[in-house]
Design a protein that fits this description.
Layout: E1 2-4, E2 10-12, H1 18-29, E3 46-49, H2 51-56, H3 66-71, H4 79-86, E4 90-91, E5 99-107, E6 110-118, H5 137-150, H6 158-169, E7 173-177, E8 184-188, H7 210-215, H8 238-241
Parallel strand pairs: 3-6
Antiparallel strand pairs: 1-2, 4-5, 5-6, 7-8
Region (Disordered): 170-206
Protein name: Transcriptional regulator
Length: 254
């Protein structure tokens, strides 16, 4: 089959199974992106499968059945899932769903991981990627390639990708030398999300949260609600209507 990449590149992909596709991607495709922080990790290659490609690789065109729809992943006894395990590859705890990650334990600094996105399983949801799933393969590669260049390689919805970007820019840990032993150890990277849950500020918590109970906070609590401020079109001036771009701001203050 044909694999469409960024900048109009078209590669011949001989894979007929998911395992062969993963191994071809890592060994021959040249896909992936360098890390954004010296303490981070390289961005894993992303392969988007059309409905026809999914069927060719032994996957169902759609996730059918009550269990699959509920969990949004293939059952553990599906032939493709078993095939992946027999080849000594692993799936994340999310299993084989619309955004499946197939990996092996890293060897030294070399990661062995491929991110798959299955179009016909609604991987490119309209809420995050409006109109993209209906494009031709070459155009999908172009759009996602631009996003990868300007933001980060997509890992799911734009919200999920945003969290991935935060982690890529400020990894949760970094190596530091233990003054007692002289050995390098993994330590928390200041300013990062870290590896452990972070307590909210008391006003952001619920009244029964331990951080409130232990602090004796009585200053009130935030009442979260989603807001949208949009100027009606009729209020735009003629000069504003002639401007080439509009800027949208999405602020996550949680």
């Amino acid at each position: 089959g044909s694999a469409y990449g960024t900048d109009g590149i078209v590669l011949d992909c001989p894979a007929v199974t998911v395992v062969e596709l993963v191994e071809w991607t890592l060994r021959e495709s040249g896909l992936g992106a360098p890390k954004l922080n010296r303490y981070g990790k390289d961005s894993d290659p992303l392969v988007v499968l059309t409905a026809a490609a999914a069927v060719k690789l032994g996957l169902p065109e759609r996730l059918e059945g009550r269990e699959q729809r509920r969990s949004l992943r293939l059952p553990e006894d599906h032939p493709v899932v078993e095939q992946v395990r027999r080849a000594k590859w692993r799936l994340t705890q999310r299993g084989f769903g619309p955004w499946a990650r197939v990996y092996r334990k890293a060897q030294g600094r070399d990661r062995q991981c491929v991110q798959l996105a299955i179009l016909s399983w609604d991987a490119l949801d309209e809420r995050s990627w409006p109109g993209v799933s209906e494009m031709e393969p070459a155009d999908i590669a172009r759009v996602l390639g631009i996003y990868a260049q300007r933001v980060i390689t997509p890992r799911g919805s734009t919200a999920v990708s945003g969290l991935e970007l935060m982690t890529a820019l400020r990894p949760p840990t970094k190596p530091e030398r233990d003054p007692g032993t002289g050995n390098w150890v993994s330590c928390r990277n200041p300013g990062s999300l870290g590896t452990e849950p972070v307590d909210p500020a008391p006003p952001e918590a619920t009244p029964e949260h331990p951080v409130v109970m232990n602090s004796g906070w009585t200053g009130g609590f935030l009442d979260e609600e989603a807001y949208q401020w949009v100027r009606p079109v009729e209020l735009l001036t003629d000069e504003e209507c002639l401007l080439p771009h509009a800027v949208g701001l999405d602020l996550n203050t949680a």
